Amino acid sequence: MADIFAITTRGLEQVSAQEIAAIPGTIIKTVAYRRVEAACKDINALANLRTVDDVFLKLQTWLSVGHQRSELARFTTLSTELGLDSLFSLIKRLRPLTRTPRFSVTANFVGKRNYSAPEIKASVADGILSRYDEWRYSEDDEESEINLRVFIDHDTAVVGMRLFKHPLHRRDYKIDHLPGSLKPPIAAALAQLATVQADTTILDPFCGGGTILVEAALMGAKVIGGDVSLDAVIKAQENALSASVKAAVHQWDAAHLPLATGLVDGVLSNLPWGRQVAVDENLKLLYQAALAEMRRVVKPGGQILLLTTHPELLDVKPAEEIEISLYGQTPKIIRLINRE
Q1: Strands 54-62 and 2-7
Q2: What domains are defined for the chain?
Q3: Which residue among 35, 61, 72, 288 is buried most deeply as judged by most CB within 10 Å?
C-alpha cells in the first residue's frame, strides 16, 4: 500500500474522495480542505482519476507550521530529512527517470503568511539540494522530471512527490481553449454528481469549448451540445475529435433549443457568468428562458446541474447547492430535479 494525497477543488472534496475510494484496494484516510489522503494498492489506477487536479505520493506531514519568516529556515531543515529515494524508485517503475533528475517545487497555503509561495519553494529546494547534490533544481515545472508539492493548510503542511509527469488536470484533448472555459476536473465532477452512465443522454446548451461534453462522453454518455458562438462550436468539435469521442455540437440560441421535448436524460452546464464571457442581453432573462428550455427537453425526473455565480437569477429552489472555488470566485453548483 502506498500513502497518497490528491489535490482537488474546494467544495468537491467528497466527490473526489468517492472517485478515489472506487479504486479497488484503496482506503480513504482523510478528507480535508482541497485534499484527500488515502492508502492505495494500485497506484497505476490513479492515472485514471478525472475529478482531481493532481495526485502525489505522500512524503511527510509537517506540524505546527507558523506564519513568521523564521519558518523558511525550518522548511529547509525539514526538507533535508525527506527520504526521496524510496518514492523515487517507486515512480521509476511507472515512467522513465534519469539518475540525477531535474526537479521542481510547487507550494501553496491557506491563510496569510509573512512569506510567499516562491520563498517556500526556494527554501525546500535548498534543503533537497543539500542532501541530493547531484539533483538539479528548476523553477519551470515543464522541464522537470520530478515535482515536489508542499500544501499548507493553516498549521499543517503535507509534502509529496507527484506521481505522474504532468498534473492530472491537464487533458491532452484540450487543443483549443476559450475564455471562461471550465477546468476539466470540475466538468468531470459535474458528470460524477449527475451519476452519468453509458445509457444516458446529456445536454450542455452552453457548451463553450466542449469540456463538459467530452468529460461526460468519456464516462460513456451520449452527448449533445451547442453554443451561440460559432467559434465555440468549432473548438468543441475539435476537442471532441481530439478526445476520440462522439459529440453532436450545434450553433444555437439556448433560449430556443431545436430539440424534441423529453429528448435527454439530464443537463450539465456552466452558465454564462457575465464576467469572463460577455453577455449581450439581460442575464436574468437569459437564465430563465434557457432553464425553461432545459426543463422542456429533459425527461421527467431527470437532473439539471448548473454552475453559476448568480444562482438567484434562476429564481428556483434547488434540490442541492454546492459552493466551489473557481477563478477567484465562489460559484455554486445548482442541482434541480425536473418535475415536468
Answers
A1: antiparallel
A2: 2-162 (3.30.2130.30), 184-337 (3.40.50.150)
A3: 35
Mean pLDDT, the chain, as a whole number?
92
pLDDT digits (tens, 9 = 90+) for 24-36: 999 999 999 999 9
Residues paired with residue 276 on neighbouring β-strands, in sequence order: none
Backbone φ/ψ region at 294: left (φ over 0), alpha (ψ -120 to 50), beta = alpha
DSSP letters of 83-146? -HHHHHHHHHTTS---SS-EEEEEEEEES--SS-HHHHHHHHHHHHHHH-TTSEE-S-GGG-SE
Which residues neighbour 56 within 8 Å (Cβ) at sequence distance 6 or greater?
4, 5, 6, 7, 149, 160, 161, 162, 163
Which amino acid appears at position 241 of this protein? Answer: L
In this predicted model, what pLDDT tens digit does every residue of 181-213 receive, in sequence order?
A: 789 999 999 999 998 888 899 999 999 999 999
Which cell numbers hold the place of 68?
513568521
Q: How many beta carbons lie within 10 A of that of residue 290, not counting itself?
A: 23
DSSP-based helix, strand, coil % in the chain, nearest 5: 30, 30, 40
Report how far Cα 156 is from the mean position of its chain's Cα atoms.
23
Give CA–CA dist 76/126, Å, rounded. 6
The CA distance from 42 to 329, in Å, is: 35
Rounded Cα gap, residues 135 and 23, in angstroms: 34
